[in-house]
Amino acid sequence: EFGINKGTFWSPSGKLLAFYRMDQTMVTEYPITEIGNIPATARMIRYPMAGGKSHHVTLGVYNTETDKTIFLQTGEPAEQYLTNVAWSPDNLSIYIAVINREQNHLKMNRYNATTGAFEKTLFEEKNDKWVQPMHPMEFVPGHSDQFIWQSEREGYNALYLYKTDGTLIKRLTPVTLESNGYSALVVTELYGIDAKGTYAYIQAVPATSCDREIYSVDLKTATVKLISVSDGGVSTAKFSKDFTQYIHEYSNNVAPRLISIEKNDGSLIGTIHSAPNPLAAYNKCEVKLSTITAADGVTSLWCRTILPAGFDSTKKYP
Fold first, then answer.
1. Is the pLDDT reported for residue 179 higher than 50?
2. What is d(CA 232, CA 250) in angstroms, rounded to the nearest whole number?
């Protein structure tokens, strides 16, 4: 939930360790039946039922040099989510996306990593339904006062460039069909930013397609460029540390797997592996991807149609 998959966060220097501390003493117990025992036994866990008390979470910072721990002053109410934890490059601040229990109000807060004191709310996000941040901020190399934030605030998961004082510099990826011809993109992966802080590299899905491709994003001009060369399907990337080249792994309905090494502009360096289609000689079903209009008469939904081998669309079938 909210992209939380671990409970410890090392500072860039490696001398400070931020960690979650969860207190469940106020949460009601719930029985889990262990049917492997004869007779079955009940194992009690803490489970926050709807409307009941939820656990309280705080974020501590342990100093490996002084052997001391401080806790961030994240305030009330205690029943809140502390998510998307990120350290500043200078090790002095910790940024946390604080979300209310209703999950419809986010505050991006900065805290002093030495004293634990709250310093500033950089920005807020609200939604009648919910907010769901899934990724911590990504600082721009060479620009310690700038970071990239991912958000669905405008309908599609997009990248936003911020200053650490909370000023929004610009949105980096399109969320509508814009005048420059860029289609709206759903960002599915931020691979990282090059050492000069010039380009970010992402995986994204065009709103007019269901193909996943690799793009570069110019942080100065917000220009998005397609760099993966494919014939539809899914492309994933593993970039080198300096982001000058990447391993491109690709597949679609007829290509099981193609792995190549490419430069960060998409030009081919060499092919590592090309798997033949094991079903090429078979009389197989045809898979088509198309769109249908939803009940509102506006929204287009992607659907997959599987047509039997030898299907003739001009004929009528019982």
1. no
2. 9
The Cα 2–Cα 204 span in angstroms is 19
* CB distance 98 to 142 below 8 Å: no
Do residues 309 and 284 lie in contact, with contact meaning Cβ atoms separated by under 8 Å?
yes
**C-alpha to C-alpha distances, 63 to 15, 42, 119, 172, 309, nearest whole angstrom:** 6, 40, 20, 36, 66
Sequence-distant (6+) residues with CB within 8 A of 16 are: 10, 61, 62, 63, 64, 87, 91, 113
Average pLDDT over residues 184-203: 95
CA triple 238-244-245, angle to 5 deg: 40
Cα–Cα distance measured from residue 174 to residue 185, given in angstroms and rounded to the nearest whole number: 6
Identify the CA nearest to 90 among candidates 145, 162, 20, 149.
Answer: 145
Nearest residue to 265 (alpha-carbon basis) of 235, 241, 223, 229: 229
Residue 211 CB-density burial (10 A; 0-12 exposed, 13-18 middle, 19+ buried)? middle
The token pair that represents 199 in the structure block = 């380009």
Residue-wise pLDDT tens digits, 62-99:
999 999 999 999 999 999 999 999 999 999 999 999 99
Look up the pTM and report it.
0.85
| Encoded tokens for 160 | 């936003």
22-35 residue pLDDT tens: 999 999 999 999 99
Residues near 121 by beta carbon (within 8 Å), at least 6 away in sequence: 107, 108, 109, 110, 166
Task: Measure the N-to-C terminal CA separation of the chain; round to a whole number of Å.
Answer: 47
Closest CA to 109 of 127, 133, 129: 133
- Residue closest to 194 by CA, chosen among 264, 252, 268, 101: 264
